[in-house]
Amino acid sequence: MAERQSPTPGEITIMVAGGVMLIFSFLHFAGDRNAWQSGLFPIATLLPLYGLIMALEIALTKFGSVKLPESVLGFTWNQIHLALGAMAALMALGWLITDYGDKQIGMWFEILGGIALAVGAVLLQRERNTGAIG
Amino acid sequence: MDKLKLSTANLIIIVGGVVMLIASFLAFNKFSRASFDVAGVHVGGTVSYSAWSSHYFLIATIPALLGIVMAAQVAIDGFASGVKLPERVLGLTWNQIHLVLAFQATIMMLAFLIQDTSPLDKGLGLFLMLLAAIALLVGAILRIQEKPSGTI
Questions:
Q1: How many whole angstroms from its chain centre is CA A39?
Q2: Contact A16, A113 (CB under 8 A)
Q3: Class of domain B2-146
Q4: For residue B105, which of A25, A50, B67, B71 sits 20 to 30 Å off, Cα-Cα?
């Protein structure tokens, strides 16, 4: 039986960020509403969804022995992680700056998670020597 | 002179980016109350908020900024012969970057369209920004079909 490789720091960062973002998306985001409730859905739900996609891809291929297509619309999975991570960080910055009333714990963890996804995606490029960064 | 000739895809992206920028200053959400005069004083009417208003900046401004970046890249590439942009950024070709930015702008505008904003109504700016985002996505896809670089 082939030995399963342990996850790299980049992969761990993305999986933890994705999991944390999903859990905290059900806690108060702004006022007394979470990211899935009327008034915030689906604009505030995009961040945890991006995290979920990134975390699932790594979890499925690393631990689930699932074989996903090598590229989607001409993007490799490494490129998809980079693009989703960058857009997640942009939305995190957007929510950080936007004066949307009371920022609650759910929003703070979505912001931190979005930044963590971008960091994880950058680490992933380095670990897998994609040549995209450094 | 050939430099001044834009492809259909690039033209759509430039127009989409300009419409997106203009629309971002129009009413994103608005609040209408019955309007009437009381003792010569006008009461009520419509209050509107653009994508740059404090309650919406930066989250609703992101699609406009993405459109500006796309249009600016096309304009620089097409008209500024002295400026040479790198062929790839973070390992992505410009075709791929256009697709990512346009997809993000469209998905965000669709999210704003679906979002329940009551008691506020959705304004013309929001609808125009959505149309511009879709145009940007169409432009990005056409660009790839015109100059394929392994995407789609």
A1: 22
A2: no
A3: mainly alpha
A4: A25
Reply yes or no: is the peptide bond before residue B119 cis, omega within 30 of 0. Answer: yes
Size of interface A-B (CB pairs under 8 A): 79
DSSP at B2: G
- For residues B138 and B70, is the Cβ–Cβ distance under 8 A? no
Q: Which of B57, B20, B62 is nearest to A87 (CA)?
A: B62
Which amino acid is present at A108? W
Contacts of A79 in chain B (CB under 8 A): 91-92, 96
Q: By the 8 A CB rule, do B56 and A47 touch?
A: no
Residues of chain A neighbouring B106 (CB-CB closer than 8 A): none
In the structure, what pLDDT confidence band is assigned to residue A3 with cuts at 50, 70 and 90?
A: low
Tokens 């791929």 belong to which residue? Answer: B96
Give the closest of A75, A97, A125 to B58, CB-based: A97
Enter the pTM of the model.
Answer: 0.92
B79-127 pLDDT tens trace: 988 899 999 999 999 999 999 999 999 999 999 999 999 999 999 999 9
> What is the CB neighbour count within 10 angstroms for residue A46?
21
Q: Would you say B20 and B143 are in contact if contact means Cβ atoms under 8 Å apart?
A: no
The size of chain A, in residues, is: 134
ipTM: 0.93
Contact A20, A120 (CB under 8 A): no
Residue of A nearest to B55 (CA): A99
* pLDDT recorded at residue B5: 75
**Six token digits for residue A130:** 């994609």
Distances (CA, A) of B106 to A89, B112, B134: 17, 10, 6
The residue ranges of every structural domain in chain B are 2-146
Beta bridge partners of B32: B46
Mutate to test the interface with B, among A76, A90, A93 (most CBs of B within 10 A): A90
